[in-house]
Design goal:
The structure holds 2 protein chains of 2 kinds.
Chain A (H helix, E strand, L loop, with lengths): L10 E2 L8 H17 L20 H20 L4 H6 L2 H27 L7 H19 L3 E2 L10 H24 L3 H20 L2 H11 L1 H14 L8 H26 L8 H13 L14 H23 L4 H21 L22 E2 L2 E2 L4 E3 L2 E3 L1 H24 L2 H11 L1 H6 L4 H27 L9 H14 L4 H17 L7 H15 L8 H7 L4 H14 L3 H7 L1
Chain B lengths: L1 H31 L6 H19 L9 H24 L8 H21 L22 E2 L21 H23 L1 H11 L1 H6 L4 H27 L1 E2 L3 H16 L4 H21 L7 H15 L14
Antiparallel strand pairs in B: 1-2
The chains are: A mainly alpha, B mainly alpha.
Chain lengths: 575, 320
């Protein structure tokens, strides 16, 4: 199944590994297993019940998962699983697993002593886990890295690859459903630690580089699978509106951020007033809705309203873009910021007192009725395949359609002549102009196009939120959208989805830290730009732009790229 | 006529405040071509620095001489913040793509606002409750100390014109600062080095100028004036809050663009013009007062369309 292509044979590095590292690590993992099966405290109402013997609670299951992963990796190091050992750097993965297990056990101890008042409430099980995690981490750091072949060079048969893609998507679906189901904040953080550790360990093993190549080879499977996962998600919630409300908020946010990603990620124009375009779409929908405070008498079909909202937004985009796009990127950032403020102040003022009565001033337009498309009313719960779907699930499916439209537009544009023009402008505007790229036209198109998509999303947001008010559309919201892109990865779809999910989900689940949300948010922006400006899921080209002098990265990217495009068919033949 | 003169004076006062902040944008921009989006927060922290100095050392004192340590406190806090953020956030990104420092600047801005909001009376944040000087919470506006002579009864020198003493303080501050700036840029070695770096950083480095130091000086210079503006704002408006830097910073940036960004005297002129335009628009455009903030931004867009190099003229930025 796995065949070696011409690449250097694995070679040990100079430093030798101390003999005790392996047994100590194994002992640590064993201790973790034991800890997972012993009670961590005496009360059953903490951390979702970790008080039973041989019946692990959620936190203990996480520890057990990591322990099993560690044991598999350790066995691979001794040559018992030769394939894993030949292709992967197990030392790095073991360090990640050890650190993750340590974080989990510390979190458990802190959670117990926080909720029950004092360390005295922590039973030996948890302490055992702490010791085990410490041993594993310490031993893993004594282990030596070995140079391995890059996993993405492995020629695997295509059914394995397709299976891997499907497994990944299934993991995303059930992981998301499971994480959303956690009510306890400490357990939720535990899920995050587990996911983070697993992702880190797997990327050390080279699994993600491989998955990246594989998913490019099987694009259709990935796309279909992603659509299926998104479609199936509401059915995992058993009609729980609380979680679906979060999910729809994430979708609205992600859709808007994807629109902004065209402007920022593809064309490289920093737009700090993007929320105003979402807002103008929302206000158009609200003013034309059947709400009591609606100010426009004409009540067309909702699809007409969507188009009008999008057009109004893009016209505003043209008005603000045409003077500023000629000058420079820096000016654009501040002018769009000023435009965002103008929008907020204008809707605040158009209350009949200091201008025409369009927006009802600071009170906004409350009581917007739910959408009614044909005979389908979005307010009523429905049942599909015997599974209940609430109000938010209805909006979820509608938003899914909008998100699909935006993603299609995004990827189509990215792979077109226009997209290449944007990249050229982003990298060097003068060179692009010299090459005959219509710089101003393309910039304006990106700007107005992004506004169009945001306006579209805004019309649905108005109905989803039930009311529109000026203070929903403040600068901070624009900054959040930008942060979703920065965090996830500029210019990629998956990155923005990840970034938007993190930024919307975390505040919902970590309410105890609500006051510190913005503080961490600001810190996050600074740290991301400093240490990983290309984001969590970077676009390869973008990563290179941020690390121009990193030749190793350039080579890896080139290699991976060559591996995928021309040789893929040939390799499959050889395998 | 009296009304016009009165409004002109109000405009000049407001404009002086903008001008003091705008210098910070323009000095930094002239040297590193970076819009320091967090400069508004430096202004805010300057005001809090002055208040802290007064609260800790001179509480309940309102004599005129207290203003001097307050000003020193403002400048120390503002300059410290600016130097720290230059060192920690901007310097590592000096050769990064243009977008990176701008996004960092937004992060710094939000971070500083929140740090003051949450940490002003509780510097250890969620770790512990610790407030050694009994400082008030910054979650709502804090009344600024009323210093004698500066906030006393208003003067009526001519006709119906009312001149607030704090307005005189602001105008005086701007005049002194403008003279100091002129002297510093043209008469000191560091000032000439700044001019050299702004013209051509690579050649300046070859001539033995420590470019890193000059950049730090530019940040410090802007921050000192912003700290002064913070005190002036507190005296004029009687209270300070953690969010005051946002709008003021945006307006001051408008002023800097209006004067021609990178041109220090332009920032002063731009600030004064912006202040006068804003006040006059509110006075003479019917129903204008709710639209006060919009005039400034509309002016910004108009300037960018018709005269992107600003009133005083400066290098036009032409690279995204």
């Amino acid at each position: 199944m796995t065949a070696v292509i011409d690449s250097p044979a694995p070679a040990s590095t100079a430093r030798t590994e101390p003999g005790y590292a392996w047994p100590v690590a194994l002992a640590g993992s064993a201790l973790l297993v034991v800890s997972g099966l012993l009670p961590w405290t005496f009360r059953s109402d903490v951390l979702g019940n970790v008080a039973l013997t041989a019946n692990p609670g959620p936190m203990q299951i996480f520890v057990l998962v990591l322990a099993v992963l560690a044991i598999v990796l350790l066995l691979a190091r001794r040559g018992i699983l030769p394939r894993v050992d030949a292709w992967s750097d197990t030392a790095g993965a073991l360090r990640a697993v050890g650190a993750g297990a340590a974080t989990l056990t510390v979190l458990g101890v802190l959670g117990i002593s926080w909720q029950l008042g004092g360390l005295a409430n922590v039973d030996p099980g948890a302490w055992l886990g702490l010791v085990g995690a410490a041993l594993l981490t310490a031993a893993a750091f004594r282990m030596t890295h070995r140079e391995h072949r890059d996993l993405f060079r492995a020629a695997t048969s295509s059914w394995v690859e397709i299976l891997a893609v499907i497994l990944l998507l299934a993991a995303v679906l059930f992981g998301a459903a499971y994480a959303l189901g956690q009510e306890d904040a400490a357990t939720f953080v535990g899920v995050l630690v587990l996911v983070f550790t697993a992702v880190f360990a797997l990327s050390k093993l080279g699994v993600f580089a491989w998955l990246g190549v594989v998913s490019q080879r099987h694009r259709q499977v990935l796309m279909l699978g992603a659509v299926a996962v998104a479609f199936l998600f509401p059915f995992t919630q058993e009609g729980s509106d609380a979680n679906m409300s979060i999910a729809t908020q994430v979708l609205i946010f992600a859709t808007t951020a994807l629109g902004l990603n065209i402007v920022v990620g593809l064309a490289g124009l920093l737009d700090l007033g993007y929320i105003a375009f979402l807002g103008s779409g929302a206000y158009v929908a609200a003013m034309m809705s059947h709400a009591a405070a609606a100010t426009i008498g004409w009540k067309p079909n909702f699809l007409v309203i969507v188009v009008i909202g999008a057009i109004v937004s893009s016209v505003l985009g043209l008005i603000i873009g045409s003077p500023t796009l000629r000058v420079s990127g820096d000016y654009l950032a501040i002018v769009t910021l000023a435009f965002g403020e103008i929008f907020r102040l204008t809707v605040n003022n158009l209350d009949g007192g200091s201008g025409p009565d369009l927006t009802n001033g600071p009170n906004g337009i409350p009581g917007i009725p739910d959408l009614q498309i044909g005979s389908f009313n979005f307010a009523e719960p429905h049942e599909l395949f015997g599974l209940p779907l609430g109000r938010f699930a209805n909006y979820y499916f509608l938003l899914l359609v909008v998100a699909a439209v935006v993603i299609t537009v995004f990827t189509r544009l990215n792979n077109s002549r226009i997209g290449r023009g944007w990249v050229a402008i982003r990298e060097d505007e003068r060179a692009a102009e010299a090459m005959g790229v219509n710089v101003f036209g393309l910039k304006l198109f990106a700007f107005a196009g992004g506004a169009f998509l945001a306006g579209m999303a805004g019309t649905i947001k108005a109905h989803h939120d039930v009311s529109v008010t000026p203070d929903q559309y403040i600068f901070l919201e624009s900054a959040f959208l930008l942060a979703a892109i920065v965090l996830g990865g500029m210019g990629t779809v998956a990155g923005v989805l990840v970034g938007a999910t993190i930024l919307k989900l975390l505040p919902e689940k970590l309410r105890f830290a609500a006051d510190y949300r913005l503080l961490f948010f600001g810190l996050l922006l600074v740290l991301m730009m400093r240490f990983r400006p290309e984001g969590i899921v970077p676009s390869r080209r973008r990563a290179l732009e941020f690390h121009e002098d990193d030749e190793e990265l350039a080579e890896t990217i080139e290699d991976a790229h060559l591996e995928v495009v021309p040789d893929a068919a040939a390799e499959k033949g050889r395998a | 006529m009296d009304q016009f003169l009165q409004q002109l004076l109000n405009g000049l006062t407001l404009g002086s405040l903008y001008a003091l902040i705008a210098v910070g944008y323009t000095v930094v921009y002239g040297i590193v071509q970076l819009i320091n989006f967090a400069h508004g927060e430096v202004f805010m922290i300057g005001a809090f620095g002055a208040f802290t100095t007064w609260f800790v050392f001179f509480r309940n004192q309102t004599a005129f001489w207290v203003l001097i340590p307050m000003l020193i406190g403002a400048v120390v806090f503002a300059v410290g913040t600016a130097l720290l953020m230059e060192r920690v956030a901007y310097r590592p990104l000096r050769h990064a793509p243009r977008l990176a420092p701008l996004i960092t600047a937004i992060g710094v801005s939000v971070f500083l606002q929140e740090l003051i909001r949450l940490g002003y009376n509780n510097p250890l944040l969620f770790l512990a409750n610790w407030n050694p000087f009994g400082l008030p919470s910054a979650k709502s506006a804090i009344p600024f100390p009323q210093i004698e002579l500066v906030t006393g009864p208003a003067l009526t020198p001519y006709g119906d014109i009312v001149v607030r003493r704090s307005a005189l303080f602001i105008l005086f501050s701007l005049a002194v600062s403008a003279f100091f700036l002129w002297w510093f840029i043209n008469r000191t070695k560091t000032g000439r080095a700044m001019q050299a770096v702004s013209q051509d950083p690579d050649t300046a480095r070859l001539m033995g100028i420590n470019v890193d130091r000059i950049i730090a000086v530019a940040f410090a210079l802007g921050a000192a004036l912003a700290g002064l503006a913070g005190v002036a704002h507190g005296l004029q408006n009687n209270n300070i809050d953690f969010f005051m830097g946002f709008l003021a910073g945006l307006k001051a940036f408008t002023a800097a663009v209006l004067g021609g960004i990178g041109n220090i005297y332009g920032a002063v002129i731009g600030g004064l013009v912006l202040g006068i335009v804003e006040v006059m628009a509110v006075q003479y455009i019917p129903g204008g007062s709710p639209w006060k903030d919009i005039f400034a931004f509309a002016l910004l867009i108009v300037v960018l369309v018709f005269r992107p190099q600003g009133l005083m003229g400066a290098r036009v930025v032409d690279r995204a």
